[in-house]
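Figure 6 in text form: structure in, sequence out.
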């Protein structure tokens, strides 16, 4: 784990600022608003890449057959402002790539909204959509809303208790912020994590009496999905793959593709990257240079941005992922699901 030691003095300043803000909320100088509708907050202490989105997908899969769910996020990367509902006419430029990804995956099973002011967004959703539950995506630092239950995600390979504040590390606020959560979900774990290691992690996380710790791992779909067709994942063995990623942490995805594909060429972009015409031209050139039996593969989140370019769409595929939660019944019980359905 790389720590930018020379930036530690700036981390001290940043930590002082975030600590003052948290103290203002603790002393009720800044207000937290509660709502009658149950609110599940999914967030993290780190900047990106902790597996929040797959966990939100998991919660929808578990709950949407029983109750009406609305998801509210800030709409990171969009070119608009204010409250918006995602629909078939929405673009990622209007609502952000994660909102589009959610809408395309679940269609009319849920309501997907964006608003940088979460209090306003919740009020609008309650008034216009009357949901049974609202899931707040990436809202752990948005303290103006008091959730019914809070889930903090932490990457197995870079847990918050071994990280440092920005800019020396990747933490948005002090590790002490974990005291506000009800559940810590360690994500992207190896399958069949040994019980001893789970106990070591529990000790390192320093849980408070009311907190619970759970573990989840990533499972890849057995098909990759394109604009007009699907392909079994083992067919990648016959292809040269141009892998395009615009996510916070691409290493695990790259390793997975290398395990399956005949040949892999990786073009990496920043998280939530807006692919320019020049970027697309470079991708097309790199794809053509691979010759026959080649395809372009990307993540589900990147797909919603790349598929808008017709010169890519016919050769573009994405590989969906899900998560598996250890002790699933205990996790759902910790959420208090029976209270909501």
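Output sequence:
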């Amino acid at each position: 784990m790389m720590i930018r030691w020379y930036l530690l003095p700036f981390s001290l300043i940043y930590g002082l600022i975030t600590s003052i803000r948290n103290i203002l909320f603790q002393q009720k100088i800044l207000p937290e608003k509660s709502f009658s509708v149950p609110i599940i907050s999914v967030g993290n202490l780190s900047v990106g890449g902790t597996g929040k989105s797959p966990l939100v997908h998991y919660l929808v899969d578990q709950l949407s057959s029983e109750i009406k769910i609305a998801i509210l996020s800030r709409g990171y990367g969009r070119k608009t402002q204010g409250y918006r509902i995602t629909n078939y006419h929405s673009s990622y430029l209007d609502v952000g790539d994660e909102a589009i990804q959610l809408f395309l995956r679940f269609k009319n099973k849920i309501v997907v909204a964006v608003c940088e002011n979460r209090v306003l967004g919740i009020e609008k959703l309650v008034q216009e959509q009357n949901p049974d539950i609202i899931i707040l995506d990436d809202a752990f630092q948005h303290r103006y809303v008091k959730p019914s239950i809070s889930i903090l995600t932490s990457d197995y390979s870079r847990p918050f208790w071994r990280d440092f504040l920005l800019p020396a590390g990747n933490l948005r606020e002090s590790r002490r912020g974990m005291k506000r959560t009800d559940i810590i979900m360690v994500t992207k774990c190896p399958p069949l994590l040994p019980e001893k290691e789970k106990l070591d992690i529990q000790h390192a996380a320093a849980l408070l009496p009311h907190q619970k710790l759970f573990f989840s791992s990533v499972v890849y779909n057995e098909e990759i999905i394109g604009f007009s067709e699907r392909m079994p994942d083992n067919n990648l063995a016959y292809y040269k793959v141009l892998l395009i990623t615009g996510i916070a942490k691409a290493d695990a995805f790259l390793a997975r593709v290398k395990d399956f594909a005949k040949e892999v060429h990786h073009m990496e972009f920043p998280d939530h990257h807006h692919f320019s015409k020049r970027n697309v031209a470079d991708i097309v050139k790199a794809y053509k240079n691979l010759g026959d039996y080649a395809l372009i593969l990307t993540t589900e989140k990147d797909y919603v941005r790349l598929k808008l370019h017709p010169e890519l769409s016919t050769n573009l595929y994405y590989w969906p992922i899900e998560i598996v939660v250890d002790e699933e019944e205990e996790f759902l019980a910790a959420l208090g699901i029976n209270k909501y359905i």
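Caption detail: The chain has two domains: 31-219+323-339, 223-319.
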